[in-house]
Amino acid sequence: MSQFDVVVIGAGPGGYIAAIRAAQLGFKTACIDAGVNKAGDAPALGGTCLNVGCIPSKALLQSSEHFHAAQHEFAEHGITVGSVKFNAAKMIERKDGIVTKLTGGIKFLFQKNKVESLFGKGSLKGRNGDLWQVEVDDKGNKSVVEAKHVIIATGSVPRPLPLVDIDNVNVLDNEGALNLTAVPKKLGVIGSGVIGLEMGSVWNRVGSEVTILEALPTFLGATDQQIAKEAFKIFTKEQGLTIELGVKLNEIKNNKKSVSVSYEVGGETKTETFDKLIVSIGRIPNTEGLNAEAVGLEKDERGFIKVDDECRTNLPNVWAIGDVVRGPMLAHKASDEGVAVAERIAGQKPHLDFNNIPFVIYTDPEIAWVGKTEEQLKAEGVEYKKGTSGFAANGRALGLGKAKGTVKVLACAKTDRILGIHMIGPIVSELVAEGVMSLEFSASSEDIARIVHAHPTLSEVLHEAALAVDKRALHG
């Protein structure tokens, strides 16, 4: 029976990073994962993020953006193209190639760092003295390894919708939405969160008539509402997405070649028939098969594994990270938790502040934020001041042909310490990193205002918003 210092269950962005960091710290480490490639004939590391989530969705977003630009934006640059054709299968093939390259990269990193990769589903069997016994089930071929420490990083799965089953033919989850090889004429999306908006945007750009149905009365409720309202206007009035809010679903029928959805909105009952329907109503922690109940691993009322501030579970030397525990379901949050746990096992004292974790929605324009929203500050009774600046007069944004959007800086009225930074605009997924660093180092709006930002760059809009906090904007 093999023995390890650390065994990680799950090779997603939390698990594989935890395993690599543990190995770097000198621990004999193994990582258990049951992921397979799209063809189902070989192991594939990387979890949901690399295989059917973050990475493939960004590949499709970029491809669809190029197609849309060729149709609608090249002409103003003096570029004339002939008849533009779209090949959905080729787009999916490119996406698959990126996924294969990156999952293979994790395999290489495991070999480089001497992490032993074990294929199968991992579950806790119990204690053998000071060691945990972990079963590895490779399609019925079972083996057991022992470990001083176990890190659970089993991620999350799509939340099911009771009204209809996912078949990934007509009714799709995130995986099915990433593998359509033809453009549906009419596409329905249940849920206007990150997945719904990103997938709706992809297929809208390449010709689908997209309708998004959202149960909540507020669009992007977790986002600063000034930014959310601007996004809603752009997505609906300019890009042609139909977004219905406050929807109550009554019935969904999966027919042979279509899906019909009956729902109520604004006191009116409607029925829509779609060629395909994407269900994206959030995700739930994946604890199935861990044998949690048998070993006494505690979960909360929502199914998340209970952990303390340092990711310790109620069981000795068993840790849990990522989507399977409290906090935002974000790949970068999981990765940083994985690093922190490995370092805690080594006796170090790492720190991770959930208040400073960035959020990004990769639509066009992108949406990104970190810290408190204006609505949260009002609810908490915090006195604040704010500054905003737009991309409309930014030279770099105009050159890119992407001059829509706003940057908003919120700072404490008494100390000027930055409390939140919110953005909608071109490539703000990259700009938000400056906001994260500002919060992490307790910067003031004046600090950003006094830093020289290169010209012409998109970052100048953040600089201008910081200046505007104290009413000394230079370009607006």
UniProtKB/TrEMBL annotation:
GO molecular function annotation: dihydrolipoyl dehydrogenase (NADH) activity
Keyword Phosphoprotein: no
Keywords for the protein's UniProt record, in alphabetical order: Cytoplasm, Disulfide bond, FAD, Flavoprotein, NAD, Oxidoreductase, Redox-active center
Main location: cytoplasm
Xref: SUPFAM superfamilies: FAD/NAD(P)-binding domain, FAD/NAD-linked reductases, dimerisation (C-terminal) domain
Catalyzed reaction equations: N(6)-[(R)-dihydrolipoyl]-L-lysyl-[protein] + NAD(+) = N(6)-[(R)-lipoyl]-L-lysyl-[protein] + NADH + H(+)
Pfam name, any one: Pyr_redox_dim
EC top class, as a word: oxidoreductase
EC number: 1.8.1.4
Cofactor notes: Binds 1 FAD per subunit.
Note: The active site is a redox-active disulfide bond.
Family: Belongs to the class-I pyridine nucleotide-disulfide oxidoreductase family.
Protein name: Dihydrolipoyl dehydrogenase
Organism: Neisseria montereyensis
